[in-house]
Design goal:
Residues 1-68 form the HTH merR-type domain. Keywords: DNA-binding, Transcription, Transcription regulation. It comes from Paenibacillus agri. The protein has six helices and two strands; from the N terminus they run ααββαααα. The chain has 130 residues and is mainly alpha-helical. The protein has a two-stranded antiparallel ribbon with strand order 1-2.
Length: 130
């Protein structure tokens, strides 16, 4: 199948498919006219790439184990678990950082609201309103 057909069947843009090819994730056969020709197995490969991208993995990380998982179950690919564990640690660190940022923002908002409230009380006192 041609690249456009692969794009239609997988919901992935032609540009992304070309990028996957440049990263060594998919490998079409080149015809004499230069067109890319993909085997039906390319659909499964692209679907696998989409799954791993949705897990937050980079194409570089995926390239490290894609061939293995296409031939075997994930549980038989020793390269998968370290990548998953590393990604999980990275996400946990990001969550901690985001929670700290959230706390900082909540404190700033509280501080600003308190200052505004105090300012409103002063203005009311100056105008004889209490």
């Amino acid at each position: 199948m041609k690249i456009g057909e692969l794009a239609r069947q997988t919901g992935v843009s032609v540009r992304s498919l070309r990028y996957y090819e440049s990263q060594g994730l998919i490998a079409p056969v080149r015809q004499a006219n230069g067109y890319r020709e993909y085997s039906p197995l390319a659909i499964e490969t692209v679907e696998s790439i989409k799954l791993y991208l949705n897990l937050g993995l980079s194409t570089e990380e995926i390239a490290g184990f894609l061939n293995c998982v296409l031939k075997n179950k994930e549980s038989f690919c020793a390269e998968v678990m370290p990548v998953y564990q590393s990604k999980l640690e990275e996400i946990e660190k990001q969550i901690l950082q985001l929670n700290q940022i959230k706390l900082n923002l909540e404190q700033r908002i509280s501080s600003i609201l308190e200052e505004q409230h105090d300012q409103d009380i002063l203005i009311d006192k100056e105008h004889g309103r209490e």
